[in-house]
């Protein structure tokens, strides 16, 4: 695995702190700060050929110009999986067997800080190598929930700030410039004012912030696709048509969990109309990735609002998205994070896991 720092510098550090503490090095607080080298770009020579995915109109296209749809799964955060002994290539290989062409990597701000960015980036490096070997694309997601401009969040694990978020994307964009395997940068997972509990979300303010992040990303790498989320926990994109992100090559995200749409009576046509009103209409003009979707039956493991459903949601959402060329990654290929795709690390599928596995393997 490629290391970020020059061999001689790392060797000197190991002598200074001792091998046992090597993974605990805080390179930003060592005494001889003037000797800290600049972070290096990922070594693409270790990757096999993999075409870049681009935006063309309201679609994604591959290197040959052919229409491309991201279809795949979320996994848990790499640092969580590492601590539980599940961060390994075999996890990616299992997902390949399920039929995915895409894996979404959620990076929680608390995990980024507690692991240390230099340690965490080595996990992402491994994900790039594994995914590339298997012909899979990655979506890298800054996994926070709340309204960033107000600095208010749903839980301490999501706490971040504008500066940290900007620095994360600056660091990542510089590191993975020219790496086709990481196709998408999801700037912020779920922006929401939590019904006023995090203040009042303002689309023009949010739009301006995302444009600033995109400018930083594009200053390093114009071959990646920035992904911008709507409000109401990344569900509502109604402001996009009137006030779109004024940058080329971007896409939008929605998390259309089953209880987000609330028509009465709850018929398929009524749900489709609700989806179209809140987010689906954007797909006529811009590409969309539903980076989270899924369900669990009432009383099932991890059942909570807004993911509870009787199972009708699965066929409905797939039919709806496929008719509109909407890409998607289902949540979540982990036995602990609901709605789960698997019961255990033997990869026994849950009810929704069986459904999505069948859908993915059909492609």
Automatic annotation (TrEMBL):
Biological-process GO terms, alphabetical: polysaccharide catabolic process
GO molecular function: hydrolase activity, hydrolyzing O-glycosyl compounds
Record's signal peptide: 1-22
Keyword Hydrolase: yes
Keywords assigned by UniProt, alphabetized: Glycosidase, Hydrolase, Signal
InterPro entries named among the record's database cross-references: GH (IPR017853), Glyco_hydro_5 (IPR001547)
Occurrences of domain Glycoside hydrolase family (ranges): 61-335
Pfam family, one: Cellulase
Family assignment from sequence similarity: Belongs to the glycosyl hydrolase 5 (cellulase A) family.
Listed name of the protein: Glycoside hydrolase family 5 domain-containing protein
Source taxonomy: Bacteria, Pseudomonadati, Pseudomonadota, Gammaproteobacteria, Alteromonadales
